[in-house]
Amino acid sequence: MTDQELRVGIIGVGLMGADHAERLAHRTSGARLVAVSDPDTARAGGLAGRFDGVRAVSDPLALVGDDEVDAVLIASPGFVHEEQVLACLEAGKAVLCEKPLTMDGASSLRLVRAEREGGRALVQLGFMRRFDPEYARLKALLDSGRLGRLLLLHNIHRNKDVPDSFRSEMIVRDSLVHEVDVSRFLFGEEIADVTVYSPTPTSAAAEGVIDPQVSVFRMASGAVVTNEVFVRNQVGYEVRCEAVCERGSAIAGRPWGDL
Predict the structure, then answer these.
(1) Are residues 113 and 138 in the same domain?
(2) pLDDT digits (tens, 9 = 90+) for 221-238
(3) What is the model's pLDDT at position 15?
(4) What backbone phi and psi angles, to 5 degrees, belong to 96?
(5) How many CA atoms lie within 13 A of 111 on its CB side?
(6) Which residues is 10 bridged to in the sheet?
(7) pLDDT of the residue at 3
C-alpha cells in the first residue's frame, strides 16, 4: 500500500458488486480494485477480466487475508456477512459492508462488540444519504433552528426495477433501511416503533411480492415519519425527503430550488 493508493477487494459480484467494481476501477481516486470473489467463479472471473490487474479469488476469506488487499467491500448476501465482516476485523482491514449488516439483531450486535473490542473503527455500512450534499444541507438547516423543531418527515424511495428474487422482506431489509438511517440522522434520535402497510401490489410485482409498501415510524420524541418504498415503479430511480418543521418545510432530492 502506498500513501496514495488503497488496494480494494470485493466479495460478491452480483448487481451491486459489479457496480462497485466499475466505480472503484474508473471513478474512485486513491483506490484501486485488485481482487474479486464470488461463489459463481465464472462470473467473478469474467468481471476480473474486464479490468487490468484484477484477480478472481475463489475463497472470500482468502481474499480478506490476502496481503495485497488493504480494504474489503462486501456485497454478498446478508446471511454470510457476519463471517466475512468478522474476518475483516480479525485481519485488521477496513470494510464497507452493503446492508443489511447481518440478518438479525443478535449477530449485528456481535460484530459491533467485536469491532469495539478491537479498538479500531473499521466497519462502515452502505448508507450513503447522510453523505449526499442535499441531505447534508438539509441536516445543517434543521440543526440551525431556522425552521423550528422537526415535526414530520416524508420519505419517497422508488426504483425502476428489481430482479424477481427481490422479495417482500427485502424491500424492508434492503430498501426501507435507508429511510431508517435517514430518519435517525435528521432527527438525531432513535425510532420507537414501526408499522408497515401493504397496499394493493403493482401488476409488475413478482408473484407474491408486496410492492409498493408504506410504513410509519414513530420517533422517540413522538414525531412521525412516513415512508413509501416502491421498487418496481417502471419509471426510474427517485429518492426525496420532505422535512416539515414548525416554521416551514424543506425538501432534499428535488432538482430545483435551494434549501
Answers:
(1) no
(2) 999 999 999 999 999 999
(3) 85
(4) -105, 115
(5) 25
(6) 36, 73
(7) 59
> Is beta strand 31-37 parallel, antiparallel or unpaired with respect to 213-219?
unpaired
Number of domains composing the chain: 2
CB–CB of 61/39 below 8 Å? no
**Cis ω before 39 (30° cut-off from 0):** no
Alpha carbons 95 and 63: distance in angstroms, whole number: 12
CATH number of the domain that residue 227 is part of: 3.30.360.10
What's the pLDDT score for residue 4?
A: 76
Note down the domain range covering 32: 6-125
pLDDT, residue 133, reads 93
**Which grid coordinates belong to 228?**
413509501
Would you say residue 65 lies in a domain?
yes
Mean pLDDT on 79-101: 96
Judge if pTM exceeds 0.85.
no
Q: How many CB atoms neighbour CB 188 within 10 A?
A: 13
Q: Are residues 195 and 141 in the same domain?
A: yes
**Domain-ending residue, one of 104, 125, 146:** 125
